[in-house]
Amino acid sequence: MSQPENESVPAPQPPAPAPASPVAPVVVKSGGKGLGAFALVLAVLGLGASGFLFVQGQNLLKRQEIQFDQKINQAALGESKNAALLADAGRKLQDNEALIKQLQSDMQTQQAEAAANNRALQELLKTRSDWVVDEAEAALNLAGQQLVIADNVPAAVAVLEGLDARLARFEQPQLLPLKQAVSADLAKLRQRPFTDTANAALRLSRLEAAVGALPLLADSSLRPPQAAAPAAVSPNDPWWRQAWNRTLGGLKGMVEIRRLNSTDPLLMSPEQAFYVRENLRLHLLSARVALMQRQNDIYQNDLAASENAVRQYFDAATPAAQSWLREIAQLKAIQPGSGNVGDSLSASLKAIADYRQQRQGEILSLPEAASEAAASQPAAPVSVPAPASQPTPAASAPALPTPAQASAAHKGIES
User: Fold this and answer.
1) CA distance 287 to 392
2) Which domain, by its residues, includes 276?
3) 168 vs 190: CA distance, rounded Å
4) What digits encode the pLDDT tens for the residues 50-93?
């Protein structure tokens, strides 16, 4: 059949590949019995060789696994040995530390015993001069207390006189500086002015008690004047002169003129008068405290303020005020704390300190001589416990296989 003309002609297709020729099967002819038997033998031999190689590989893998487990067990055993050795070394170190602490405690005990023995040796080596110096120091401390606390110069002089008389009975040359120092301090104390602090404090207390009896200036000014004595009339005078004298005397008694420097005291109320007296008492109390503390400036200032207050607010013309002011003037002549107490016994105390320092050097020279004699003799050997030796991990246990060695062994097993 012819195709229509208007239809398109398909493009030519590429040629299909030729089909592969099938492999021809090996056909064993029934006639070749010898060749078949030979092939069977070869197959059996190959199978046997393959089984043998497989068994050998399994044995080798098993042996390598056993060796690897043995190495791991040996490494664990070595680690346990190292741990035991380290624990043993730690116990030995603790024992050594306890031993060192015991030795330190024994050393401290021996040092305390040595100090006690040294004090006992010093007490045994004390001579009669040392006992005299101890007594002198106690007496000087007593005199210093009298000077510092109460400024009692006579008591201090009496103590130093007794000490000087006692030192004069000893002829030891080492006591000569102390004798000279005590004599010098005694001469200084005898020349020092003495302030009877107790008597002055008692006088201030009496003045404080007498403040209430002092008359105020306002009371004296407002008090009615006393009647003037009538003028003497001579009987020989005429009658008019006698009358004139009587009249003049009466007029003089009616008027009294007084001059005051200040009018402030006249304007004080009773409450202000009370505070004036209390303020005066406080000044006297402060002066007494300053006297006991030997503060001369405060003492003089309080006495001056008390005197000014009495002259300003009280009637200084009365006998009570005059006696009070005379007592204040006598107390102002006292100068508490005028001398320096600190250097009164300095020479004697320095002599005692020098004597003790010299005796201390003499006592210390005896143990040094004994130590030199002991050093000349051979010293006995002292056994010291040896420190615990640290174990060496490389020598005590086999080393673990490195990662490179383990990977190489694994590759050998796989091969």
Assistant:
1) 89
2) 194-219+268-338
3) 19
4) 888 888 888 888 888 888 888 888 887 778 888 888 888 989 99
